[in-house]
Amino acid sequence: MSGAGGRVATGLVLAAAALAGLAMLGLPAFYESFLYLIFSWIALATSWSLLSGYAGYFSFGHGAFFGAGMYTTATLTTGLGAPFLATLPVAGAVAALLAAGIGAVVFRVRRLRGELFGLLTLAVGFVLATIVLNTRIDGGPGVYLSAVPLPRLLASPTGTLYLLGLGLAAATLGAAYGIAHSRLGLGLFAIHDDEDAAEGKGVPTFAYKLLAFALSAGLAGVAGGIHAMYVSYVTVGETFSITVPLYVVLMSVLGGARHWLGPAVGATLITASLYAFTGGQQAVLGRAVVALALVVVILVLPEGVVPAGLARWRRWRPRPVPVALASPALVAPPRADAVLACAEVWRAFGGIQALRGVSLRVEPGEIVGLVGPNGSGKTTLINVISGDYAADRGRVTLGAETLTGRPAHDIAGLGVARTYQIPRPFARLTALDNVAVAATFGAAWLTPAEARADARGWLEFTGLGRRAAALPHELNLHERKFLELARALAGRPRVILLDEVLSGLNPAEIASAIRLIQDIRARGVAVLFVEHLIRAVLELCDRVVVLNEGAVIASGSPREAMRAERVVEVYLGKAHVVA
Amino acid sequence: MPSLTLLGQAVVSGLLAGGIYGLLALGLSLSWGLLRLVNLAHFALALLGAYLTYQLGTAWLVPPWLATLLIVPAFFALGLGLHAVFAYFRVTEFTSLLVTFGVAVILESAIQWFWTADYRRYETAYATASLRVGPFFVPTLELLAGLTAAALALVTWAWLRFTYIGKALRACAEDPAMAVAFGVNRRAQAFLLSGVSAAYAGVAGGFIALIATLAPAQIWAWVGVVFAVVIIGGLANPLGALLAGLLIGVSESVTMAVVTPAWAPLVSFSVLILILVLRPDRM
C-alpha cells in the first residue's frame, strides 16, 4: 500500500512541478486563466467529495462555504487592509467553523440522513446570502478588490493566481488520496454504506462526519479566498448562485465521487467542455447540455467515469489480494479478563415494555444462551448492550467499565462485538474490507494496512478465504452470516453477542458454525448466544437464560432451564388435565 | 411596532402566500413520501406551467382558466413520461435528487431560451381586483389560489385515506414488497401518482402566472422555502403541507411587516431548523 501511496505522491508532486514550471517559462495569460479555472474547480469538486462522496452525505451547500471564503478575503483585504495571502487561511478557517457549527447541530439528529442533509445545506446558501446582503459585509453593491495588492509570485498577476490555484488543487488531491487510504477514509466509506453498522463496529461516526465536513468546507473556503482575487469584484448574486453547488455535484458524480481522483477528472472534463459554450444564448445552451450530461451519467454510470474505467482495467489486470501475514487466530488472543453483567435493565418503546429488569452475567470463556419466544426482548437486550439503544434504567458493565450511556463506537472499542440477525455488510466494500473496518476500529485498533492483513486471517478462520475480493451481494446467505462472524471477531472482542447466527443455514453449515463458536470460546471470549435452534443451544451453552415478555423467567444449566415449568408453558402452552 | 391593521393585513397576505406554498408543496410531499422520489424538477414544472399560461394568454389570447385546463392533462402526461424514465433506470431516493436537479436545470435553460431571462408580467383585468373585508384587502386571485390549494389538499387527503388506491399507495410506501404480495399493482400506482403530482404543478403554475412576475431563476427561489414546508408538514401528508405552507407564509409576511422585507427568507429556514432540532423524529 505504501508503495502505491509513494508513487501517487511522487506523481502529484511531479505533475504540479511540471505545471508550475510551465508558468515560469511564461504561458500566455489566456491559458493561465483557463488552467486556473480548472484548478479551482478541481479543488472545489475534490473537497466536496471528502464528505459527500466518501461518506455519502450529499451537500448542496458547497457554494455557501466557497462564498464564505470569498467574502472573508474580500472583507479582510478591503476593510482591514490585511495582506491577501494572510487572508487565505482565515477564509478556510471561517468556512470550516461554519461547517463545524452546522454539522454539530444536524449530525446529532440521528434520523437526519442523506436527502434531508442535502436540503438543509441548500438552505445554508440562501441564509448566508441573505445575511451577507443585509449587513455591512456587503450591503448590496458588492465589494471591489481591484485596489488590493497581489503579491508577485510570478511576473504576471494571472501567473500568480495560476500558481495559487495549482498549489491548492495539488494539496486537495493529496488530502483526498491520503484520506481515502487512511483510517478516516475507511470509516467514511463504512458510514456511506451503513452508518449504524459502522458505529457498531467502532467507527466514531459523529466525529468523522464533522471532521470531513469541516475539512471539505475549509478547502472550499480557501478556494473562495483565491477566487475573490481572481474575479476582483464580489457580489452576492454571483457568489451564492446555484452554479457552484450544481457544478461541484456534477463534476464529482461524473468522475466518480468515491474515488479520490474522480472529481478532478470530472472537473477537467466539464470546465473544458463549458469553455466551448461562452457568451449569451450559447451559455444557456451550455448549461442545458451540462445538466443533460448529469442526468445521463447518473442514470447510466451511477458510480462515475473513473471507477467504471478502473473496473474495466481490473478485468484485464486483476489486482493481487494482500496475503495474510499470519493467522490471527495464533496472534495475540483477545483479552479475557472481564465479565459482562447486566443489572436490572429496563427499556420501553412507547407503551411497549420490551425489557423489564433483566439481569445476567457472562464470564470469560463461557457461552450463555439467551432464548425465548419471538418478541421476548432478546434482540433488544443485545441492542442495549451494544449501545444501539439506550437503557431506560439499569446498568450494563464490562469488568470495571460501565457500558450504559456510552456511544456504540466506544462500546465496540472496549471489546464488545455483535452480529446482526439479518447480515448488514457494507455493500460497496469487499468482504476483505468489511472485515478490515472492524479490525481498524474495534478493540483491535490496527492501521488499515495491518487490518487488511489481519482481515485475511479472519476470513480464512471463517472459511471465506477465497471470497476476499467479493462484494457482499455476490455472497450467499451462509457466507454473509459467516462474514458477520468474521467482522465480529476481527474487532478482537472480549465479549461477542451472536444474534441468531444459525437461522436459515442448512445442517452442514450449522455444524461448521457450531465448531467455529466453540473455537471462539476456547480463546477466552465471553459469548452471549441468541438462538431459536434448541439443539444448538443445548450442545453449545454452559448456561441458558430464558426471556419472556422482557423478563427472565428461568436460568441455569441448559437442560434444567429448558425443563422449568414456566418455560415449557411459554413454549408449549399450559397443560390442561382433563378430569 | 406597526399598527394592528397592518399586522392583520400581514397575516391575511401571509395566509394567501402560504396557499401557494402549500400548493407547490403538495405534489412534492406526495412523490417524496409515497414514491421516495425527491423531485426538484417539480419547481421547474410549476414555472413552466406559468410561462405556458402566460404564452397562451398573451400570444393567443387563451383565458387563464382554459389554459390551466389544457396544461393540467398535458402535465399529467409529462409526469407519466418522467416517471417512465425513473422507473426504467430504477432511480433511488438519492439519485432522484440529482437526476431531477439536472431536469430542473434543463427546463430552466429551455425557459430562458424561449422567453429570455427578462422579467415577464401577465397583465389581466382582474390581476389587481381585491375584496374588502373590514379593514383588510384580500386580492381575489390570491384568495382563489388559496382556496384551490385548500380544496386540492382536502381532496388528496380524502383520496389517500378512504379510497382503495390511496390505501394501496400508503401500503406501498410502508412496505413495497409486502404490498405487492397482497396484489397491489405498484407500478401502475406509481405512474398515477407521478402524473397527479405533475398536474398539481400545472395548477400551481396557472396561479403563479397570474400573481407573480416571472423569471427563469424563480425556480431556485422556491426550493428552500417549499422544502421547508414539505418537511414541516410531514411527508405524504396533504393537510400538513397546507397548514405548514400557511404557517410559513404568515411568519414570513409578519417578519416583512415587523422587521424588514429583506430578512424574510431567513424565517422559513429558522422555523425548519428549530423543528428539526426540537422534533428530530418528524420525518
Fraction of helical residues of chain B: over 70%
Strand content of chain B: under 5%
Instruction: Indicate the low-confidence ranges of chain B by residue numbers.
Output: none
- Quaternary state reads heterodimer
Mean pLDDT of chain A: 86
**Average pLDDT for all residues of chain B:** 84
The computed structural class of chain B is mainly alpha
Biggest sheet character of chain B: 2 strands, antiparallel
The main sheet of chain B orders its strands as 1-2
Number of distinct beta strands of chain A: 12
- How do the strands of the widest beta sheet of chain A line up side by side? 8-9-10-5-11-12
Number of helices of chain A: 23
Order of helices and strands of chain B: HHHHEEHHHHHHH
In helices, the fraction of residues of chain A equals 55-70%
Quickly give the CATH architecture of chain B.
Orthogonal Bundle
How is the CATH topology of chain B named?
ABC transporter involved in vitamin B12 uptake, BtuC
